[in-house]
Amino acid sequence: MHANSVRLVQLVILVVIIGGWQMGVSSGLIDRFFFPPPFEIGGQIIRWVTDTSFYRHVGITLSETVLGYVIGTAFGVAAGVWLGLSRNAARIMDPFIKALNAIPRVVLAPIFVLWLGLGLWSKVALAVTLVFFVTFFNAMQGVREVNPVVLANARVLGARRSELLRHVYFPAAASWILSSLRTSVGFAVVGAIIGEYLGSSAGLGYLIAQAEGNFDAVGVFAGIIILAIFVLIMDSVLDVVENKLIKWRPNAAEKPA
């Protein structure tokens, strides 16, 4: 299907959902207290966007998300590549990694607040814990999926360990790692928002928590929609990065039908 056709279908689906929602509220089939009409939600979003103080909240959440995303990705990829290359280290660390991964991240939020306070870094720490394991497992699996024939040929040609990492392991694991990067964007946002929700004085999570405390469903839905747009923008940036880093991958138009 052509890209323009896909966009048209997506637009039709969005119009049907919003139109049906609005009609349901107007006819009384949907309780407006729990599901306020889309036009009121849109009005709240416009009021926020036209208020300059709103961008301070966006900037704080963006800072927490980006820091958590970058730090969690860096540690996750480094640990994943290390344990992917060293089977003995992976066997030793396996029970500890499983135990840490089994801990619900929400439980860690109050601990990070106690350790790091109500400022930026407690939210960053929570985002890091959410992002780390996603990238870690994908990086480790990607390294282990390297074609042994390609690896053997590179060694025959005299490639050193650093050259194997650069020219064999990382290219082979690139698809796995970039796939995890796309998934972990949402986790980074979730970490920042949960941290703000539990205790903060600014940020999009703070706005949502404030609206919930006032039983303002319009504000809650407006915050959720803004967060969704927030993630979609970051996902679009990742699309550009992915296309630049994996130039050897065929475009959708070049793939067989």
Short overview:
This protein has 257 residues and is an all-alpha fold.
Describe the structure.
This protein is mainly alpha-helical and 257 residues long. It has a single domain (42-254), classed as Orthogonal Bundle (MetI-like fold), CATH 1.10.3720.10. It has helices at residues 3-27, 38-49, 54-85, 87-102, 105-116, 120-144, 148-156, 161-198, 204-213, 217-245. The longest helix is centred in the C-terminal third of the chain and has 38 residues, at 161-198. The chain is globular and about 75 Å long. The chain starts with a helix and ends in a 12-residue tail after the last helix. 27% of the residues are buried.
CATH superfamily annotation: MetI-like
Main beta sheet: strand number and arrangement?
Answer: none
Which residues sit in consecutive blocks of at least 5 with pLDDT less than 50?
A: 252-257
CATH third-tier fold name: MetI-like fold
Distance between the termini: 10 Å
> What is the level 1 CATH name?
Mainly Alpha
Radius of gyration: 22 Å
Residue share in helices?
A: over 70%
Query: Would you tell me the structural class of the helices and strands?
Result: mainly alpha
Just name the CATH architecture.
Orthogonal Bundle
The SSE order reads: HHHHHHHHHH
Beta strand % = under 5%
The overall pLDDT average reads: 82
